[in-house]
Amino acid sequence: MLQQLLPLLGRQCAIIGGKQFSTSNPRPAIILRTRLRVVDNSALGASAIDRPAYCIHVYNKAHVGKLGDTILVAIKGEKKKALVVGVRRPGDNMTPRFDTNNIILLEDTGNPTGTRITVPIPSSLRSRTDLSKVFAIASKFV
Q1: How far is C-alpha 134 from the geometric centre of its chain's CA atoms?
Q2: 94 falls in which pLDDT band (50, 70, 90)?
């Protein structure tokens, strides 16, 4: 019965061993409930391997996160601000496309929580002066 209704709902699902799994592609934009990967060496980010962080608010008018936007994430039962440093969707003016949606956790003052960033940071963000402390702990740029 369920397999007859699935084509009508417009969702791509597979039923394996009596359990339903989604086989549709992940959404390439950062919106509410998007799973994110923490790419700094903060203790909170390192402990979130079993349950990834997810977006609960985007601080812009369109509510769609792009490269360089500040978002609010839920991670290990806590709410933290984060900076988007890698997005699956291709951006404007030749910004690089990443395999995952990458974030750096921020304190309330805007300083990064960790002391090292493990992935390359897009050089298109270098024009922003409010992110100077993020660039100081980054070692690679793309």
Answers
A1: 16
A2: confident
